[in-house]
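Continuing the series of single-chain predictions for the mutant panel. This is the parent chain; the variants come on the following pages.
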Amino acid sequence: MENPEYKANMMKRSAEQWKNPERKAKHIEMMSGETNPMKRPEIKAMFTGENHPNWKGGVSFDPYCHKFNNQLKERIRNRDNRHVKILIVAKKKTVQGIQFITFTTISPIVTLI
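Parent structure:
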């Protein structure tokens, strides 16, 4: 169980460190480019796929099937000359005789391959 006092103290110390421009610049330099520890293969492997703390058993394809993968997405992007396709959907809702139309923007890839 976390100690709320400890957590508050750590957050305060972290905020104080970010006020120091030299410390902030050093951190940004370390985390950018090839010096980023996450670019090291052994570290990257610890946080990839099933090893990642946010892994949920391969549900990333929901609501799509396993065939909707990066290779298919790349084929579609190339086919469409890398232009973004946005689909606007209008939804009608009637409440007590008053009709409301709400527009939601979604961006699925609507395609026939």
